[in-house]
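S.,

Sequence below, as promised.
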Amino acid sequence: MTENDLKSHRVTENELKFALESGIIDAVAIQAQYAMKKREDLLNKHKTSVWQGKNGYWYTYLQENDGRRLIKKKTKEEVEDAIAEHYDEVFNVRKLFHSWNDYRLDMGKISQATHSKNRYLYNRHLKPYSATRVENITPEDITLFIEDEVCRKHLKYKAYLNLKGLIKGMCQYARRKKIAKIDYESAFADLDLNDKDFDKTRHKDREMEVFNEEELPIVLDYLENNLEDIRNVAMLLILVSGLRVGEICVLHLDDWLNDNAFMVKHTETKYKDKSGKVCYKEKPTPKTLAGIRTVVIPTKYSYIHRLLKERYGGGIYCFADENGDFIKDYVIRNRFYRVCDLLQLPRRSPHDARRTYATSLLNNGANEMFIIDQMGHTDINTTKQYYYRNVRNVESKSKIIDELIG
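The prediction came back faster than expected:
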């Protein structure tokens, strides 16, 4: 074969295989050079500057469908990794997640709060695998990953369901967009998990999740005598209505039907924007459809509505700050803690007050339909299973036992 013949000859697959196996061609070096050239080409597509801030971190902006996304990394190389990934058409786990999560937000399928929650789940579970190529993921990989997360991180059953939901959504999106066909159904079917694998640790005594029969009158008396602070009024209304803290935050003055009843039609929602800042918004619907309801409060507390009208008659919200915006959930939560500290009681949260309210209705024999209407639940089992607690003190318990057994 002449030199010209060699120049025009196309290397066959067998010849290439021979060259690799015999060490004539260094495969590792070729792969490294190819990766470097590909990375260089991807970085050249980025026209926005990369800079180092005074804090030592490196920054750039990536252009996305809904605007620019700020990238902040400890090193320049990490910023360049993010740039290369952004322009690479090959999907890894991180790129798939953000594409799926942003798509659902853009289409109005999820709220900003759910979008933020998904990002939290990704960071908790999937971030270590962010560079894994989606096309290489097998059902066995998913099965082993979920089992490992449950056991290693001691997940509760609810956290496990959240993780499965995240993976299912991403896999369905990958399938629809023809990115990869991942058989997540088989992965879920092969899971070797049972009830004993999930964490059932209670971090709080059930009886500490309510104000007991001694504590509640003390708290109510304090609040009724300190109504000059609007946060105390909000706390009092939660205790006598059982509202969720997010519903109290955005309760409108015109939601009141009269001095003893009001409509629940909105709730507070919060999320983190792309810079990591926590944002608060009023959501035009409650947490669930059952949350749209009319709540009645005792006649004894009808003065609450009149007090609110006097203070905020020209505004929108029942509980507003100096700028007229609704007060945030953490403000009311901190007020609960502050009042409990002042009264030398164990700290209780707004949700503990909601449990106290539900328990009082059940203990006093209220009609079940009335209870679920007041609570905004779909059935009484939810109230009994998740909200009913013992509010009796030791003396009351002893009296009950004496009557039953003594």
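The chain has a mean pLDDT of 88.

Coffee later?
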